[in-house]
Amino acid sequence: MSTLLLAAINPVFLNLIVIVVAIALGSILGWLCELVKIPLITGYFLSGILIGLYLIWCDECIVFDHLKALGNIALSFIVFELGTRLHMRKVKRNISEVIVIVVFQAIWTIGLVTAAMLLFRAPWEMALLIGVIAMATSPETIMVLSRNYRSKGHLTDSIMSHIGLDDILVVIIFSISLTIATSVNRQTSIPTGAMILEPLLEIFGSIIIGGAIGAVLALFIHISKRDDARHRQFYLVETVCAVLLITALTFREFHIGHIEFSLSPILAPLFMGIVFTNLVPKDMRKENDAAIDSFTPPFIMLFFSLIGIQLVVSVIGLEVSFWYVLIIALAYIIIRVVGKQVGVIVGAKVKKTPPEIVKYLVWSLLPQATVSIGLAQIVMNETSLPITWRQIIFIVVLIAATIYQVVGPKIAEKTLIASHEIAPGKLNFFFEPKEDPLLVRGENHHDNPQTPH
User: Fold this and answer.
1) What is the pLDDT of residue 319?
2) CATH class of residue range 68-296+327-394
């Protein structure tokens, strides 16, 4: 009671306490999850569920609204880092393969999920929106696994390229679909010119502004003196400023005449990362990555915790039967996997993709959190759309993200291990020190004989 009273007197107190508990509890649960061979990301997510239940018990759910901005900052860091992995030298080697597979994956996933939602009697425009959201693949899980376990190879490169292009395409299709959905449901008619220009301005504005900030960041990185002992500090400060700037700009509404638009929180930081990584030398890029990697872990913990809190808080305000929504969510989860699987197989047959990529790729693309939840939030905040279906879409995506977040990291991690793209010395994070003979031969071949084992 005294805690609640103090929080009422000083709301900042409870906000800071939730941040502290999210990071501390997330660290502990992440460590415990690794002990039982579950990816540590799952522990971060579970900490958010526990905090969310506590906030409901204390009737302090408003805290989540105060912390949303931290989630957006974390999303910008994650998407920016994904962009830095999309170096043109790597991407152009298999760009046609990636484009074909992503397009087929989009067609099958959007088509099947939209059809399923129509069977649940969703309005066609709402069914289309959730079908488009189903296409999204979130980068944070594979980014954390790849960074922590130093995965390298054709599959890892393919995953990064697929996620990047997949999310670019989904944001473009979503912007167009949302404009159609809002025009269908608005009481007042929208000029045709505005309907066309709003999504175009959002897409191209995000690409241009994100790319411009990425180019300026690359210029500052070049100017920083690498012979200075504090050059990594300079890299970190400059990059953090750029990420915070792009995050701030995505919160702002821009006006051109009677047309209103905002920058995409996905496309803007993604293209900032793409432009940046293609304008700096490889050694500087690695130095900058190392500096950022030392700064972002608390934000990543908070991001996953906030997803858990959001799930618990959102279910409380649901106006329809939770069991009905749960059935829709389970159908969404299964059909999304089927759509992605069929799309990958069909696209891979067209491009004659190596079998190991076909075998593992779709399972590596299962996790869905950042991008899908961000798009679902946009739908939830669009007041011209039907309130019931806005709630259903939002809760369905959150439930799906929850389940994908529990099983997705483990499946993605197993695919990287099965394809021999996680460094041998890192396998003991998940397994007992029982060595794969193929990996041992590859490791010993490069070992220095004088190095003790």
Assistant:
1) 73
2) mainly alpha
